[in-house]
């Protein structure tokens, strides 16, 4: 018993001594940072913790900047996808007609409806997907260097698919809140939830439908994210690799690669984005049933009742949203990666 007490006493004394040493060194560290702030910043950025965290922080910041720029286009895209639901010969709105309708109603700020949810989604989803992708790529690159080989497209694709799937599961609640907030204005005034913010939306959905409802549409969200990341991150990384030895400047290479990535991301992910929007928007009817039982059921009903081309309704709007978002995200992430390397 006494030996245990003695051991605990020694550990306590050692901890106190360490704390005193750290406190004693603190003024010197602060003075060094004051005399050479640039070096202090470099030391901090190159600490093991920051080297692990930076891909996630840079990715999240880049995604939030891009979302702020693109939010009105995203709002129009959601309205297009929800128009004429369940009717094959329903209304055929255009991006211009949707924008005119919003402006004519005197609700220009409605184009930024759900911005708080969009920013939260980027803070969670893009932080995770960009961070995971960069972490996976660093690991793959290190392994390739050890083996004297190069990272191939299949490995880039695998990293993009995995990063997208993991991030989508984490970010689904914010994504669902965004869809609910953006679709709320389509309902009759008496039926609108009039969410005040993303926090209000998440709290009210949880109270009325249960916490599990926050993961409604998670399956197509994950599939969509995997398709989008396959198109965006894998093709961006591959394009940059192919353009590396060309006469294009580094900035031109990044712009060209991000434009190509935006197109492929749009093409592969739009059908899943369409189904995700329908599933996340749906709520129980008077009979207590949901319009769609799941992703496959939604695909089948839309195919049967609205036709296969409905999945690609608003492709130009979606591309206009995805391509600039991809370009801004990738360019900002690239720049942040450069200044913090």
From TrEMBL:
GO terms for cellular component: mitochondrial inner membrane. One of its GO terms (biological process) is transmembrane transport. InterPro entries: MCP, MCP_dom_sf, MCP_transmembrane, Mito_Metabolite_Transporter. Solcar repeats lie at residues 50-139, 151-242, 249-339. Signal peptide: none annotated. The keyword RNA-binding does not apply. Keywords: Membrane, Mitochondrion, Mitochondrion inner membrane, Repeat, Transmembrane, Transmembrane helix, Transport. It is found in: Mitochondrion inner membrane. It is a multi-pass membrane protein. It comes from the Eukaryota. It holds the Pfam family Mito_carr. This is Mitochondrial 2-oxoglutarate/malate carrier protein. The lineage of its organism: Eukaryota, Fungi, Dikarya, Ascomycota, Pezizomycotina.
